[in-house]
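Quick start: read one record
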Amino acid sequence: MEYSLTTAKWVKARASTANGACVEATSVRADEICVRNSRDPEGPVLRFTKPEWVAFLAGAKAGEFDAIV
């Protein structure tokens, strides 16, 4: 099945700032999450499987990345 990232509904975190430097995500297929830089909507898109995305979010919520910020 074909799908379009240009017509997808991209979402940002509620805590995003107005300067436009945000991560946006969308799910145009049930098994894939796409992520991009809001400042470069025509730029590269990172694609993750649903289990990869769930694992990333769980790690972020658990503080696994706190040491790098």
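The chain has a mean pLDDT of 89.
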